[in-house]
Amino acid sequence: MAEVNTLARPYAKAAFEAAQAAKTLEQWSESLAILSAVTQQEKVLELISNPSLTASQKAQVIQDVCGEEAKVISTLITALAENRRLELCPEIAALFEELKAELEKSVEVQVASAFELTADQEKSLTEKLTTKLGRDVKLVTSVDNSIIGGVIIRTNDMVIDGSVTGKLAKLAEAMYS
How far is CA 69 from each of CA 34, 36, 58, 61, 77, rounded to the nearest angstrom? Predict the structure, then answer.
């Protein structure tokens, strides 16, 4: 995965800089999301890997499938096709969103809990994480019955494991060390 990330990063950075210069971050974000979804479809993946099609044919088909949204990113699609990097689109879109979030001082936080969080719990957790991280926080919650109780919080390179399962694992490790 690190290799894919390494290959995608220059494209994402160039796309971000172009979008920022043109003041079209939201348009680029939406277009890249569509491009990412399109290039993950099985038939499109077959097209991308078809050696009988030229780069310009592949780019044109991708642009046709993406429709109007492709106009903003047509140069990127062409460059990716010419360099045989169309399969990197999902990673490029993800890296673009990271750069956008960094600029906007926001972060998406994944919260897994044993039970559905109430609105008050979500609000309290959002406020505490906003203070701790110094950014606007967008919570994405999920229910995971395997953690028994508590929560597991993930964002970028930070994990806070406050689950009962995690605490039991630490206890077992301490006992057998």
Answer: 8, 12, 17, 13, 12
Instruction: With residue 165 as reference, give the H or E element that holds it.
Output: helix 164-176
**Residue (of 118, 128, 96) closest to 5 by Cα position:** 96
Whether 2 shows a pLDDT value over 70: the answer reads no
Helical H segments across 23-147, by residue range: 25-39, 42-48, 55-66, 74-82, 89-104, 119-133
Enter the tokens of residue 130: 């906003």
Q: In this structure, which amino acid lies at residue 131?
A: T
Angle separating helix axes 2-22 and 25-39, nearest 10 degrees: 150
49 φ/ψ angles, rounded to the nearest 5 degrees: -90, 0
Rounded to two decimals, the pTM is 0.68
Burial of residue 104 (CB within 10 Å: 0-12, 13-18, 19+) is exposed
